[in-house]
Amino acid sequence: MSTSAKETNAELAGQYWQVGEDIQDKKANVSLPIEKMWPDRQFTSRLVNPANRRKMTVIIVGTGLAGGAAAATLGEAGYRVENFCYQDSPRRAHSIAAQGGINAAKNYKYDGDSVYRLFYDTVKGGDYRARETNVYRLAAVSANIIDQCVAQGVPFAREYGGLLDNRSFGGVQVQRTFYARGQTGQQLLIGAYQALERQVNAGTVHMHTRHEMVELIVADGRARGIVTRDMITGKIEEWLADVVVLATGGYGNVFFLSTNAMGCNVTATWRAHRKGAFFGNPCFTQIHPTCIPVHGDNQSKLTLMSESLRNDGRIWVPKKAEDCEKDPRQIPEADRDYYLERIYPSFGNLVPRDIASRQAKYRCDEGLGVGPKVKEIDHDGTEHMRSRGVYLDFAEAIGRLGKDAVEKKYGNLFDMYQRITDENPYEVPMRIYPAVHYTMGGLWVDYDLESSIPGLFVCGEANFSDHGANRLGASALMQGLADGYFVLPNTITDYLADSPKFPKVDLKHPAVVAARQGVESRVNKLLSINGTRTVDSIHKELGHIMWEYCGMERNEAGLVKAIGLIRNLRNEFWTNVKVTGVNEELNQTLERAGRLADFLELGELMCIDALHRRESCGGHFRAESQTEEGEALRHDDTYQYVAAWEWTGEGHKPVLHKEPLIYNSIQVKQRSYK
Predict the structure, then answer these.
(1) Is 111 helix (H, G, I), strand (E, B) or coil?
(2) Is residue 352 part of a domain?
């Protein structure tokens, strides 16, 4: 990084952020070989005897794969678990939407896979911006996940002889992804749900559906409970415990249009951030390359087509712009550009998501996109009508395998595509385009999954720990179940071993009273503004700002502009939003308004994080930092660290704490998939 660039960053720091002390994870014993760190931590983590577990209360927010698995496991261990979700059933957690598969280093295909290779692929796929100790542990426990799920009856695909089948996902050259057609998330969640309901029936887990966490209670420096709003009656309640676990997913809906369920939000983790939990790498968001393109101005969400389709589907665009409006079946092979196969011959259509997404954008920017044209506004305000789509073609696979074989592997995905687009993908190539999907950033946690607030643990997509700057496909389900079934139950005991010594906290404790009053004040404020703008109109405007300036490509001028626009929009929200109805009833407008208030603050921090990181890595692509071939160019000498941000109050500059990333077990180098 040049001297002038460092000087520029110092000037920006004075304006937008402060620099604090470095931090480090102190829980992993890095003096040991990496393969021995997790067994060592399991042994050194203090235990809680069964009689004492019955006296301890654990609050778990979220019932997806991470939250559901954690609640079931801790309930079975004998703790009193209070489990919360905003859905009407744990089975409606967003984990159910995952389609393509779950990774595990079983090496069933005898193609060279191993724990180390899964570890290596994951760190490399994240562009060397993940903590290697956590990633190795994830790879090491991955095989246990499959055994657990098979025992629960998850109907993984099997080969003719009855053995579990595997397929490939992006960023790897082996087959390690276990799958259940295109319904893997649903089937895994049903397995976790059954384990969870068993503990509900046993009385160790108490389920609270339609309860949204709206505040974290921190008393005497420890996380000791949460405040919830009953989404049916509006009742605001305080819940106290010895420890709090957040497993509330990601924040992709800050972009408004994303592949996330419309209820997905950042409120639980953002409320914790405002109470002192550091937020790690918020700008690391993933744009998924295989989504159904935007088709109009009135969409509320986007639809993901599983990355597994890239196993057999070939991605291409016409070589000539004049062919873009032709029926693709009429374009001869010689006039098609299978650009991923051309640019990345070693990985072809199975390059990682960030690379596939950018290459699709480049083709469309060149005027080679296909499908209906949509209006776009460039950074300079110029309007354009562009086609935003590339082809995902199964003609070759159908010719090679037969339609029946393709239908057996991908039939439900093909059916979903046809219902949405009214096009038959067995006959006409699918049209796909990148969309916001997953967030690698989240609350900072140490090796034990404990945040910077003692007693607050964070699992799954809600934490930052395992994916660096880009998540490889089929690794989200792996992390969620690993955290919930195998990691958290082994590390939370070390914290709970001290719980008998914690100061007593009841509903009259000043911190509890203040948390409840803060929630009531916020709700009353939202209901009293009575402005002229709807919640959704402001959210759409925020999403447009985020997509244009903090989406697939970022630059300094755009990010500075975005920060100003978001600050103005946040002021507009707090002075001119219209929230109808009252608190004491089902009020979805109030729900969305509370979530949007947090998104507006998060959006600014995401842009500040992207502004401070003057390098390209994974899903974070700074236009000022790229190779001659247009690939991401990292600056390891300056930015090889986790950016952990501390909240300092409304209107105050956040504090940047750096956790240096040290790689002892893997060689750091520029990524190449060619």
Answers:
(1) coil
(2) yes
Q: How confident is the model at residue 386 (pLDDT cuts 50, 70, 90)?
A: confident
Closest CA to 29 of 447, 623, 409: 447
Q: What's the rounded Cα separation, in Å, for the pair 84 and 632?
A: 40
Q: Find residue 219's DSSP bridge partners.
A: 222
- Mean pLDDT over 29-37 rounds to 97
Q: What's the pLDDT at 44?
A: 97
Question: Per-residue pLDDT tens for 450-478?
Answer: 999 999 999 999 999 999 999 999 999 99
**What average pLDDT does this structure show over 30-49?**
97
Tokens at residue 76, please?
């079975």
Beta bridge partners of 533: 577
pLDDT of residue 382: 73
Whole-angstrom Cα distance, residue 621 to residue 328? 31
CA distance 397 to 311: 10
DSSP string, 621-637: -BTTSB-TTS-B---HH
pLDDT at 377 over 80: no
- Host domain of residue 351: 288-435
Instruction: For residues 460 and 438, give the distance between their C-alpha atoms in angstroms, rounded to a whole number.
Output: 11
Residues 626, 310: Cα–Cα separation, whole Å: 26
Q: Is residue 381 part of a domain?
A: yes
8 A C-beta contact, residue 31 and residue 662: no
Number of Cβ within 10 Å of residue 523's Cβ equals 21
Q: How many domains does the chain have?
A: 1
Tell me whether residue 260 is in a domain.
Answer: no
| CATH number of 422's domain | 3.90.700.10
As a 3-state breakdown, the chain gives helix, strand, coil percent values, each rounded to 5, of 40, 20, 40
Q: Is residue 421 part of a domain?
A: yes
- Nearest in space to 179 (alpha carbons), one of 383, 506, 408: 408
> ∠ at Cα 36 (112, 457), nearest 5°?
105
Query: What is the reported pLDDT for 500?
Result: 93
pLDDT computed for residue 299 by the predictor: 81
Place of tokens 């969409």: 299
Taking residues 320-336, what's their average pLDDT? 96
What pLDDT, on a 0 to 100 scale, did the predictor assign at position 213?
98
Q: Which helix (H) or strand (E) holds 602?
A: helix 588-612
Distance CA(42)–CA(19), nearest Å, equals 34
- Kindly list the catalytic residues: 353
Q: Band the pLDDT of 11: cuts 50, 70, 90.
A: confident
Q: Which residue has the higher pLDDT, 224 or 160?
A: 224
pLDDT value for 14 = 78
Helix (H), strand (E) at residue 456 = strand 456-458
Burial (0-12, 13-18, 19+ Cβ within 10 Å), 669: exposed
Which residues are CB-neighbours of 313 under 8 A, at least 6 positions away? 349, 392, 393, 394, 397, 430
CB of 213 closer than 8 Å to CB of 226:
yes
* Buried/exposed 635-667: b ≥16 CB within 10 Å, e otherwise: bbeebbbbbbbbbeeeeeebbbbbbebeeebbe
Q: Could you read off the pLDDT of 53-100 as tens digits, one per residue?
A: 999 999 999 999 999 999 999 999 999 999 999 999 999 999 999 999
CB neighbours (10 Å) of residue 189? 30
533: helix, strand or coil? strand
Q: Identify whether the C-beta of residue 63 lies closer than 8 Å to the C-beta of residue 93.
A: yes
